[in-house]
Amino acid sequence: MSRVYNFSAGPSMLPEAVLKKAAAEMLDYEGSGQSVMEMSHRSKIYDSIIKGAEALLRELMNIPDNYKVLFLQGGASTQFAAIPLNFLNGSGKADYVLTGQWAKKAFAEAQKYGDVKAVASSADKTFSYIPKLNKADFTPDADYFYICMNNTIYGTLYHELPDTGNVPLIADISSCFLSEPIDVTKFGMLYGGAQKNVAPAGLTICIIREDLLGNARDITPTMLNYKVHADANSLYNTPPCYTIYICKLVLEWIKENGGLEAMKERNEKKAKLLYDFLDNSKMFRGTVVPEDRSLMNVPFVTDSEELNAKFVKEAEAAGLVNLKGHRTVGGMRASIYNAMPYDGVEALVKFMDEFEKANS
Ligand SMILES: *Cc1c(COP(=O)(O)O)cnc(C)c1O
């Protein structure tokens, strides 16, 4: 068996130790005689899995007691509608910052439900930076302020959060979930699809300040009402049981490997290796301004479409897969989430160096 280094933006690599543990427990989970896939979500044994996952997430992210943790289906994209339906309930106004495709999609969805405003955008330069925010542009009585914290496609990250005062800050953290410590108290809500950095696809995690719950619009579908899921401890209906189990294994792996501080250190070391190479290369260059660079998603290009295509093809043959960039940026993108080992980034940089020498 030989495993490749998978640089996919998502679904993406999982820690090998997690896959091995899941394989070992596949037929008989802890003496139950069943796979976790086959269990009732209302059984005692499953209860220990979902409660265990929540407890670990709370511990690792230091989530205060006045925040609810929800394990939902529907992906991050479903929350684009659920967020306005649940929270656009006072003035009916909200502010959005447009930093890429996912922020734009969330904004477009919210426009169906209220008076939402784009307070800033980096569309003018293909979202290659995080726009500077001017507090004078913020809506003082907004029901919430929305950002996409790490922009998976464009490779930008908010290294500093906007100061929204009393207006709750809501952030899509799909692609930076668990990549470094985050101060949950600064947010009204944090959420993300799990398939980038937490688990396989199928699970969406929402972390919501309790006082914001309970004012969903009357027309809100029951399945999009966060209060319904909070009151039922994520068991209102069948949750994505197996994905939550893998999530628990990933959280255990993170804890065993030193928690989020250690993840941050590993991720910074990996990202530095790649960015330093890009900054010194004559063939490859990163597409994002240095101060807003993501630790997780690194887009880069050469000046030639032909070379880009040749690179992606030859890299794949060398076991470095899924490096083709998003069609709106072109070129390449390396997603280097928690599960990507340092050795993987080292192999990529070595390959880039050899490619540059062979083709210039
Ligand atoms: C992948 C991604 C999404 C979309 O997630 P789905 O679970 O496929 O709906 C949304 N936001 C960000 C930042 C993403 O990276």
The coarse overall form would be globular
What string, H for helix and E for strand, traces the elements in order? EHHEHEHEEEEEEEHHHEEHEEH
- The termini sit apart by 35 Å
Number of strands: 14
For the largest beta-sheet, the strand count, sense and barrel status come to: 7 strands, mixed
What can you see in these coordinates?
With 360 residues, this protein is of the alpha/beta class. 34% of the residues lie in helices and 16% in strands. It contains 9 helices and 14 strands. The strands form 4 sheets. It has a 7-stranded mixed β-sheet with strand order 2-10-9-8-5-3-4. Helix 3 runs parallel beside helix 4. It is globular, with a radius of gyration of 21 Å. The mean pLDDT is 97. The structure holds pyridoxal-5'-phosphate.
Spell out the blueprint of helices and strands:
Blueprint: E1 5-6, H1 16-24, H2 44-61, E2 67-72, H3 75-87, E3 93-98, H4 101-110, E4 115-121, E5 144-148, E6 150-151, E7 156-157, E8 169-172, E9 189-193, E10 204-209, H5 226-231, H6 241-256, H7 259-280, E11 285-286, E12 297-301, H8 305-317, E13 320-321, E14 332-335, H9 342-358
Parallel strand pairs: 1-13, 3-4, 3-5, 5-8, 8-9
Antiparallel strand pairs: 2-10, 6-7, 9-10, 11-12, 12-14
Helix pairs in contact: 1-6, 2-6, 3-4, 7-9
Bound molecules: pyridoxal-5'-phosphate (PLP).
Pyridoxal-5'-phosphate binds next to helix 3.
